[in-house]
Amino acid sequence: MKVTKKFICLALIAAMIVSCFVVTGLSASAASGKLAKYYTTNAGGKAGVKKTIKIDGDGSDWSEDMRIATSGAWDVANHWKGAHENCLIDACGLFAAWDSDNLYIGMQYVNTTDTWQNAGDASLMDGGKMGDLHLILALSVDPSKKGLTGKVSSGDYIWGDKIDYKSHVDHLFYMSTKAGLGTPGHFTVADSSGNTDYTTHCGNFKNEGIEYKMYDGNVCDSIWGLNDSNSPDDVCSDSANWVDYKSFKGSKGVHNTKYDSFYEIKIPLKVLGITESQLTSKGIGAMTLCGRGESALDCCPFDLSMVDNVKGNYTQDPSTSKEKDDIDEITAPLARVGKFTGTITPAVGDETEPATEPDTATEEPSTVTEPETTTEPTTMTEPTTTTEPPTITSFERGDVNRDTYLNIKDATEIQKMLAKLTEFDDEQMYLADFNEDDAVNVKDATAIQRKLAQLD
Questions:
Q1: Whether residue 326 has pLDDT greater than 50
Q2: Rounded to an integer, what distance in angstroms lies between the CA atom of residue 168 and that of residue 331?
Q3: Of 314, 337, 360, which residue sits at a domain end?
Q4: Helix axis angle, 408-418 relative to 442-452, nearest 10°?
Q5: pTM more than 0.85
Q6: Residue 284 lies in a domain
Q7: How does pLDDT run across 270-314, given as a tens digit for each residue?
Q8: CB 83 within 8 A of CB 290
């Protein structure tokens, strides 16, 4: 009987490992989910600062101590396919501030192709700017409530952007990269499925007191990015050719930040249904995304869905990347604003040892409602009782391999632990209790798989 149990467990593990690589379609290095050190979220524990920002298209109000997330420069699909296109979309940094009445978010986008292109060529056409594209700010204000799917009740994607929000998001702000064009909208949950609509749950920026403008320039102290990369896997490699475009000199010279675009937005706290005290005591999540109107092409914090179809062909132009019209599933954790809890990681160049935030709160919970329990197969081992939760964890429930992504590999690790092929430490035992029933068993692995399959 013991041999039979072990055989069944091994078979399940093998099946899940195979399915993992089939589903993701990423190479081995990218599928690991571990980004290079140049991608940071709340580095040094920074979660923004209290400061009133004037929304005037002038970046002088913003400073490095407000940066809450960093993404790489020139890490977008065009680097590997479609470099001849204009309107380059390349997110680089996310900034945050607040005062007693408003939340302020800064979104830095760059165009570093001037280091190897002539002015007016390819992605430097039209002054190197992005044109009338879709700029998105995603916020997670109350993780205990239903999150947005990225779709309207009819089943269509918001503004046609094929983005599935798996990380919890309950406020979405869609606007043009050409500030002042079109009618931007503030979307919230309209139905029990997490969809929205264009009527009662789509707020008008002007009516809600939301303002945003663009600044031609860059507010970052450094612009770390890839140079002359041969593979999108380099986003997961510290040893790739990373350079600081603030000082790097390419074949055409040093980067001129006039090609960069910084967006600042003011959102009244009352529009989010919170006060300054709630913001600083609990914190909220934030992410910026941008695309051409069919799919997201970059985001900050960075999500690997931005490079999972780089080598594929775009439907309308095979010489360009499939990333332009694929479906992106956003699973990366959002950056925290107002309050940060978890393990503090240093910024690039900071030689100090990582510290731990002295707070007993955990990061925002899983982005999907409690999954249904399933019947436990009789062939599996008995439930393993969990220990008391660790003092601090910056990982969501289920992320047992602690790579900041909830995916099939986490279910696999739980199966391996139950089959006694691996061991978990106390934090992993806490994270493995996905259904929070104070026991780790096959139900937790099953619940993770159901969530990934969108059955719950």
A1: yes
A2: 9
A3: 337
A4: 170
A5: no
A6: yes
A7: 999 999 999 999 999 999 999 999 999 999 999 999 999 999 999
A8: no
